[in-house]
Amino acid sequence: MSDTSTPSGGRIMLVGLGPGSHAHLTARARAAIAEADTVIGYVTYIRLVADLLEGKEVIKKSMTEELDRAIEAFERARAGKKVALISSGDAGVYGMAGPTFEVLFQAGWTPDSGIDVEIIPGASALNTCAALVGAPLTHDFCAISLSDLLTPWPTIARRLDAVAHADFVVALYNPKSGRRTRQIVEARRLFLRHRRPDTPVAIVKSAYRPKQRIEFTTLEKMTECDIGMLSTVLIGNSNTFIRHGLMVTPRGYSNKYDVDSGTTHAGEQAGRSLSTGLDGWLAGLFASGLGAAELAALHRLPEDYIAALLAEPLASEPADEPTGADA
Known about the structure:
The protein is α/β, with parallel strands linked by helices. Helices cover 30% and strands 19% of the residues. The longest helix has 13 residues, at 66-78. It starts with 10 loop residues before the first strand and ends in a 16-residue tail after the last helix.
């Protein structure tokens, strides 16, 4: 398995199928499947594109056989085959791109080894589930998988605690299975240390598939809902709200503008950082007269970070630059 020095003409296409409906399959993903001699994937993913596989070698694998899928793809590409290795969502987001490169690098593969590798992006569960429930991801967000099959639980728990404290909108992947039932309970416990019990939560199951199900709830009550391996759990931040059946996370325009009129609030300028942005905030630290410990507690930031800032000279305000749209 280590000889990749002879050009094979083989090709591995890591195909993201998106949510699974053909309407959301990209043109490039469809073309890659059409080009392929061999299609490899988890049996459920194979079923999603079964009508596109006529005349092709199809290799179905179980949920826990990711490395086997990657090895099969490599072996066939080394024999000169064009292989479509499929994932739901995006192949680079909890998908097959990572394990495939691990297998390739272990075998001594390089981009010049004669096996071409292409990653074909698809919409991840983050995007598709968010689109179904409104606009929950229009401010900072992250994704955390609750699967502890390969990741130690203390690592997952630290990440959950950190993002809950930092007020991210969070998408929980792999939240619960037949055997893993307590992880979602512990995730809720960690979030409730930092978030209000009434924090909005949306649970989307089988997005854009025949058995799609959407449920709105709260952080306090989310473990009472129907959650499984085909579910994605979206937990809002401190500003997220649900109105008229839509979950929305404000981008922050109301911090600077009157949303009705579009005019800026006193002390704010269009195209410039907020008065509480970095420069304004630093000026406020120096003007407060408070010590590092008090400021750290006030802003929920590390004391040594605040102390380092106070030890540096305050930079002067930069000259005006041409303004553009707020980003």
